[in-house]
Each structure stands twice: as C-alpha cells, then as structure tokens.
Amino acid sequence: MGWTFMPVSREELIQRLIAPKDGEELHAETIDHDVQDRMLWSVERLTARQKTSFLAAGQSGNFIVCYLLDTHRDNWGYKALEESMHPFEYSCPLPFLDLAPEQCPAWRRGVRKFHELYSA
C-alpha cells in the first residue's frame, strides 16, 4: 500500500484514523492507541458484517496497526502497516501485544528486543 494524503492537520488526521469506521464488509473501532512523533500505533477491533478473507460474518478480531505519518505540500498523510506485514518499526507499546493475537512472531520478538534495549 502507498501513502494517503489529505488537507488536514496532523491532529485531525490522527482523529480520523482512530475514529470508528463503518464499511460494507467491516466495522472498525480503535480500542487503544499511542502517538509517537511520526507514528501512530493502534489496536483495532474489526467486526465482519459479511464473510471476509480473514473473518466469518459476525466474527471480531483485534489487530495491531502502525500508521506512519508524514507531510507533503501542507497535507498530512499516512501509510498503514499491519503486524502481519512485519513493519520494520518496533516501538509498539508492549501492552498492545496482549490485546491482539500474534500475527508475526518475528516482529513481536523485535518489539520485545526494542523495549529491552531502549527501556533501560
């Protein structure tokens, strides 16, 4: 996935990203989030309105998402990276790991190592 930019402030973009979203296939709500400079970490609960490739109709699941944040020509934008994509960012808050089932063991090891090294 590429970047999506829009004519909003950084704060407005963050609010849009963490706001509940209703789509034809899915309902999404953010159950926790953390903003770090140019990164937004979130744990999102997706509920399928109909069968998807990863959820049965009516089923819910929690997922960790890293939104990279940046500006381009006075517009703020984001690039969404889900845990299953093994984002090469490891500053995800440790408590988030308990809020969603593991999608990428190697990424979670990187998150734990990051916190071991930088939380001392």
Task: Tell me the distance between the termini.
Answer: 35 Å
Main beta sheet strand tally, sense and closure: 6 strands, antiparallel
Helix content: 10-25%
Number of individual domains: 1
Explain what the structure shows.
The protein has 2 helices and 6 strands, in the order βαβββββα. The chain has 120 residues and is of the alpha+beta class. It has one domain. It has a 6-stranded antiparallel β-sheet with strand order 1-6-5-4-3-2, with helices on one face. It starts with a strand and ends with a helix.
Secondary structure: elements and pairs:
Blueprint lengths: L3 E3 L3 H9 L2 E2 L3 E11 L2 E10 L11 E13 L2 E8 L22 H14 L2
Antiparallel strand pairs: 1-6, 2-3, 3-4, 4-5, 5-6
Short descriptors:
single chain; six-stranded antiparallel sheet; 120 residues; globular; 19% helix; alpha+beta; 39% strand
In a few lines, what is going on in this structure?
By secondary structure, this protein is α+β, with helices and mostly antiparallel strands.
